[in-house]
Amino acid sequence: IVEELFKSIYGQYLQQGIPFRENTYLGNKPILREYDFIIVGAGPGGSVVANRLSEQSNWSVLLLEAGQDESIYTDIPVAAEYLESTDYNWGYTAEPAKNGCFNYANNRCPWPKGKGMGGSSILNGMFYTRGKKEDYDTISEMGNFGWAYKDVLPYFLKAENNSIQEYQNSSLHSQTGNLHVERVRYHSPLVDKFIEAGGELGLQKNIDYTVNPENGISRLQATSRNGRRVSASKAYIQSVKNRQNLHVAIFCRVTKILIDPLSKKTIGVEFVKKGKNRRVFAKKEVILSAGPINSPQLLMLSGIGPKEHLNNLGIPVIQDLPVGQNLQDHYGTLALEFISNHTGPVINEQTILNPYLFEQWFKYGRGPLTVPSRVDGLGFVRSPSGKEIEIILAPIGQTPGRFNIATLLLQPEARGNVTLKSKNPWHPPIMSYGYYDNITDLEDNVFALKYSVRLVEETQAFKNIAAKLSPMPHPKCNHLLFKSDDYWICISKHLTHTYHHQCSTCRMGDVVNNKLQVIGIQGLRVVDSSIFPHIPSAHLYSPTIMVGEKAADMIRSHWS
Ligand SMILES: Cc1cc2nc3c(=O)[nH]c(=O)nc-3n(C[C@H](O)[C@H](O)[C@H](O)COP(=O)(O)OP(=O)(O)OC[C@H]3O[C@@H](n4cnc5c(N)ncnc54)[C@H](O)[C@@H]3O)c2cc1C
């Protein structure tokens, strides 16, 4: 019976898995029937693994990406926020929030996710941060051997290529990796005011926040090179595009991971390209790097997830695991508006197309278009509850004489989850998150908003340019006393902003082991931001690159 079943599964796969020629990412390489490794998703997790595994010339590697290639538009740092309304975004929306996202229709916060070579690193804010030593030590203390700070630091360094002058001789930075990091190449005088003001309030000026993001303030370290975005695909795929053993195929939407239900061995994946269903097989492993929303979705569609949920949808259960649970994220307020007598450049939908600014950027890698999402300046303060909060300066306003400060809770209490709407792979999953359901998050954000106002209104640095909070109250909060705690609570709930660091939906310890192998399944790993069991105090691009570097080493040593 087992043999018959085996034949019926594999026989069908083998018939359908005939080779076909493809218009692939680079050149016209055919997608073969079988590879040693199949990687799903060309985001930061998948791009790194594809590069590192294909260093081994006797291993064949296929990287399947649902989206398209990058373009000149994704190269422009300041354009990041505009890319969210293009096909580079999966365009997800979270479920209605009870205590946040009030400025959006039905209280549903948008959850953009990058779709294309580089994943979310083609539309992210390009902040380079790594988090705190304690973040990784906590991950290790949760039982994940090999993930303490001392274990992950070498991989951060392996990845980094930091050209910032003052870090050239630091043992905590490196200049040899693939991920370029530099200072923003347009220096607004407002950033200096921000740093001065932080100093006046007792923050340490010009800290290296990648090493210790605490009680300090400094300019941004950006994942760019000569003023151009460095996506994960730029950093890890473009330079190895001519490797014969690496095939990269775009517009390939994976709909299922093929797993033999008896042996629980991963066989390959099913995907759709140009409307056709196809299958491709893995000799060694399938590596799932589809990101924090699509990785759990694909696992559940393939029979790996909470038993009851899968049973309710009629999906045969292969492995009962808490996939999609425990979603974590960073959120806060975007953004308070301040006015001053400083007149600097203005970037909005009209001025971004200004030919002079474009030429400055294109020819020389300079000017305001090099400023990622208009941001240059981060501060780190501790709330009365003892948690770290990030304060973000956008010195370039959307209207003249204005600038913005945003808040970000680095260790929020809120949690969420990803579940399936149906067993149809084309239906987006259901995403929920408890914005401000926990009073500590709300109190911490109110503290951060009041701190941001103090930073501007109570320091000489900003007084010198007559800077102050815009006196126009938010129209939905103008029934409350301006600047009172109740006003700030109202602002928090209306101007809720997620920083798109969703993670932990395939968390290490519950869904994958410390080698990132899916528990109970052979030949299947998850390598992306969904594996963090506990959210680092960082924007997650560089931590996910670190995960990719570390995973590639583990995979290599497993198979050698
Ligand atoms: C708007 C925004 C701003 C951000 N700003 C910053 C920042 O300033 N600094 C920072 O450090 N981090 C930032 N982040 C977070 C960071 O970019 C992400 O944490 C990181 O990209 C996660 O990497 P990943 O590999 O887990 O997944 P992703 O980057 O989401 O990549 C997943 C890839 O898989 C592909 N994929 C998904 N499903 C399928 C499928 N079924 N078949 C084939 N391919 C599939 C996707 O198209 C995508 O290319 C931001 C994120 C966003 C969205």
UniProtKB/TrEMBL annotation:
Substrate binds at residue 499. It holds the Pfam family GMC_oxred_C. FAD binds at residue 254. InterPro entries: FAD/NAD-bd_sf, GMC_OxRdtase, GMC_OxRdtase_N, GMC_OxRtase_C. One of its GO terms (molecular function) is oxidoreductase activity, acting on CH-OH group of donors. Belongs to the GMC oxidoreductase family. Residues 291-305 form the Glucose-methanol-choline oxidoreductase N-terminal domain. Its cofactor is FAD. The gene is LOC112679536. Keywords: FAD, Flavoprotein, Signal. The active site is at residues 501, 539. This is Glucose dehydrogenase [FAD, quinone]-like. Gene3D superfamilies: FAD/NAD(P)-binding domain (3.50.50.60), Glucose Oxidase, domain 3 (3.30.560.10).
